[in-house]
Amino acid sequence: MAEQSVDRVADQDVDAYVLDVAQRARAASRDIAAADTGARSRALKAIAEAIDGARAQLAEANAEDLFAANSAAIDQPLIDRLELNAGGIDQMIEGVLQVDSLPDPVGAISDLSYRPSGIQVGRMRVPLGVIGIIYESRPNVTADAASLCLKSGNACILRGGSEAIHSNIVIADCVRAGIEAAGLNPDIVQLFQTTDRAAVGALLKQNAYVDVIVPRGGRGLIERITNESTIPVIKHLDGICHVYVHRGADLDMALEIAVNSKTEKYAVCNAAETLLIDADVADEFLPRAAERFATAGVTLKGCEVTQQRVGSEPATEDDWYAEFLGPTLAVRVVNGLDEAIAHINRYGSAHTDTIVSDDYAATRRFLTEVDSASVMVNVSTQFADGFEFGLGAEIGISTDKLHARGPVGLEGLTTQKYVVFGNGEIRKR
Amino acid sequence: MAEQSVDRVADQDVDAYVLDVAQRARAASRDIAAADTGARSRALKAIAEAIDGARAQLAEANAEDLFAANSAAIDQPLIDRLELNAGGIDQMIEGVLQVDSLPDPVGAISDLSYRPSGIQVGRMRVPLGVIGIIYESRPNVTADAASLCLKSGNACILRGGSEAIHSNIVIADCVRAGIEAAGLNPDIVQLFQTTDRAAVGALLKQNAYVDVIVPRGGRGLIERITNESTIPVIKHLDGICHVYVHRGADLDMALEIAVNSKTEKYAVCNAAETLLIDADVADEFLPRAAERFATAGVTLKGCEVTQQRVGSEPATEDDWYAEFLGPTLAVRVVNGLDEAIAHINRYGSAHTDTIVSDDYAATRRFLTEVDSASVMVNVSTQFADGFEFGLGAEIGISTDKLHARGPVGLEGLTTQKYVVFGNGEIRKR
Q1: Which residue out of A32, A114, A119 would a mutagenesis test of the B interface target, given it has the greatest number of B Cβ atoms within 10 Å?
Q2: What is the Cα–Cα distance from A354 to A260, expressed in whole angstroms?
Q3: Percentage of chain A modeled with pLDDT above 70
Q4: Whole-angstrom Cα distance, residue B183 to residue B200?
Q5: To the nearest 5 percent, what fractions of chain A are helix, strand and coil?
Q6: Which residues of chain A register pLDDT less than 70?
Q7: Contact B361, A34 (CB under 8 A)
Q8: What is the pLDDT of residue A220?
Q9: How does pLDDT run across A317-342, given as a tens digit for each residue?
């Protein structure tokens, strides 16, 4: 792991390179699927050790990435995400060991039962096969994603952000060294050794060898991937989350939940973007909310009632569809549960929505009829993530309905096949 | 339900018609998702009654379809599938009532548990939303598919084969009448009132309103749909199924399983297409198998060893990839388990594969390492279907890995969302 050249692949060879990577990944997926829990655990522990032993190289590589990013006058938030200091390396190592400590999802057989024909049918949880992960600046994703794939018995192909290439190469080399130390095929984890964007396009066509693509990044990246990919994509689009203050709410609780859902962190997908308030409680609730949000520095964009009651800026039709990801909140007064549910199902992004209410029937209907990945009662939307939900770790949050919905942990990286046990049964139609 | 015009939609209006159907379906999906178990059950019973009351119209409409098919000199197997006699109508009614009798999958909450933050997190099974089903000649699919979607709380858009349009219209009118009789929105089930193929293309672009497409038909139909669709597709490609006779097999059992897997029905996706035999038992097993298959009228295409031992025709490389769907079987002698698994994972279609063996370790490895939707031990591949597996009914068999794998029943037509219960918890990072 001495000096690395940034781009190990000649331009003209990109298609051949990607095909080779994909074929190696498919072959390696057989090895990791057949590896037992112990072997996968030894590999994860060896990866953590290898990263710990490569702190100096990693610091050097990260400095190189940061120098290039600064020279290229890249935005400060992106540079912040790129930086990997000693604490960040500690967290990365801890993350790998934490994934190792999760229960092994692979091989679990459920619902095994006898059928009238005499056969016994069940479902076995098995790896998906080969997972392609395309992500942006944070280099720690290289270790996180590799660990989750390895733990769940999958091979993976990683394509990190070009600005993090030096850091990513060092981390990926540690990952492969750890896998080899456990006696497994290092091609179980492959990082693209090129920053050529054509390699991403070529990867998205490898449906013969790659089972699923997980993009992590902004909407632009995800839309491009979804449009180009011939491989199924587990995708996460907008987080347009709602807090609905029902007339049956404890208004003190509602206020804390609304403020926390919006302000605990702004630039996260589970932050609230729209506050819905029942007309019956708007007169009492709106001024209190307006005061708290003003103190927090949040600008309100309101419906007509909101404008009249607390003098907010007006909300346009587009504001109901907006993911502000900052200190702006759309506010609408609604006439009861039906209108609230209709608003959420129309304008929301099916990510996370919460009702504040002590009314039994209203909370039951909200849970059933709001068509979102996470539907909550009397808690902050900011809880919607894999760690808080108990998945141990997450590879992303899905706003799709098929396969994985909401935070995606180890289970989302697996599938179930039917297993059938018999004693010579044959079928007679 | 008097005389129907075959095509109720003018050519130039196809796009607008399909958009209208898709939007109605999305709206109706909210109604059916909110309908309780009792309402859905009443609708299914009313549908069965309506079909029973429409036997005369249905016979007339089916005669019209059959007359047109005969005039158009359509293939006999297709005409056979098109015919709906009194027994077929009985079966269709029974099918609807059988779906009604299945447990309701909707609303089940699983894995509900408290997290350290105090929130309680679980997963609720919910309908997918709007399902588009594109199928070929059998008119009974209209009632089957509609019942499964209704039971699982989904709205559906049905596009049947043009040759069955008269029969399908009568059945769909019965379905809608039954839904209305139960006080529900009839747009929960909509059948395309046109045979224009452009309508299929338009449907495949309605990703704003349709959640999943289920094609039922030949490989050509499914490939066209997969390539054109912007909506996720639950697809079923080939069934290239294997019977592997391990050296630890009871050869009498192996013979019955091999013969049944191939011959019980030829034109089904779960029929065996390739027989793999361990070299250690080939001398004993091959002549017995050759004799039985000759009696059954099955032509063998063998590897070199098979040709030498029993004088079969030679198998070409393409034959290992072939779905014969008829009385032809490819036969290969392999050197043990590794070679058998490698053959299946390379040439198979990940549908259904069975090992015959009494060897504990071999059966365990086969179950784990064969990467197919249904992996079996000591039973015939012909058991791979929703009824035999205990799903009650199936909408199809998926050879995909994501979302639904193997026979797809009611559960495959649903998804899970996270539900979170709290008491005012807010998040502190």
Answers
A1: A119
A2: 12
A3: 97
A4: 30
A5: 45, 20, 35
A6: 1-12
A7: no
A8: 86
A9: 999 999 999 999 999 999 999 999 99
Give CA–CA dist A348/B212, Å, rounded.
Answer: 20
Contact by Cβ (8 Å): A242, A372: no
| pLDDT tens string B184-201 | 999 999 999 998 989 999
Distance (Å, whole) CA A376 – CA A78? 32
Partner residues linked to B340 by β-bridges = none
* Average pLDDT score over residue span B114-127: 96
Query: Does an H or E element contain B211, and which?
Result: none
Query: For helices B86-101 and B140-151, what crossing angle results, to 10°?
Result: 10
Specify the residue for token string 């960040």. A88
- Residues in contact with B409: Cβ distance below 8 Å, sequence separation at least 6, in sequence order: B148, B386, B391, B392, B393, B394, B395
Strands B120-127 and B109-114: antiparallel
pLDDT of residue A289: 98
Closest chain B residue to the Cα of A210, Cα to Cα? B401
The DSSP secondary structure of A92-148, one letter per residue, reads HHHHHHHHHHSPP-TT-EEEEEE-TTS-EEEEEEEE-SEEEEEE-S-THHHHHHHHH
Q: For residues A139 and B359, give the distance between their C-alpha atoms in angstroms, rounded to a whole number.
A: 47
Q: Residue A366 corresponds to which tokens in the numbers above? A: 């909200």
Q: Does the pLDDT value for residue B9 go beyond 80?
A: no
- Buried (b) or exposed (e) across B169-188, using 16+ Cβ within 10 A? bbbbbbbbbbbebbebbbbb
In B187-290, which ranges are E strands?
189-191, 212-216, 241-245, 272-278
A401 in contact with chain B, both atoms CB, cutoff 8 A:
yes
User: Kind and range of the H or E element at A198?
Assistant: helix A198-203
| B401-413 pLDDT tens trace | 888 899 999 999 9
Mean pLDDT throughout B12-17? 88
A212: number of CA atoms within 13 Å, CB side? 24
CB atoms within 10 A of CB B1: 14
Buried b (16+ CB within 10 A) or exposed e, B148-165: bbbbbbbbbbbbbbbbbb
CA-to-CA separations, B95 to A428, B49, B51, in angstroms, rounded: 20, 12, 12
ipTM of the assembly?
0.90
Name the DSSP class of A12: G
Question: B 14-33 residues with CB below 8 A of A?
Answer: 30, 33
SS3 call for B65? helix
A375, A377, A380 member nearest B427 (Cβ): A380
Q: Which domains does chain A possess?
A: 11-235+408-419 (3.40.605.10), 241-383 (3.40.309.10)
Segment (H or E) for A294: helix A279-296
DSSP state of B323: -
Q: How far is A250 from chain B (nearest CA, A)?
A: 9
What amino acid is encoded at A390 in this protein? G
Q: Calculate the average pLDDT of chain B.
A: 94
Tell which of A205, A369, A420 to mutate to test the B interface (max B CBs under 10 Å).
A420
Nearest to A146 by CA among A180, A182, A194, A99: A99
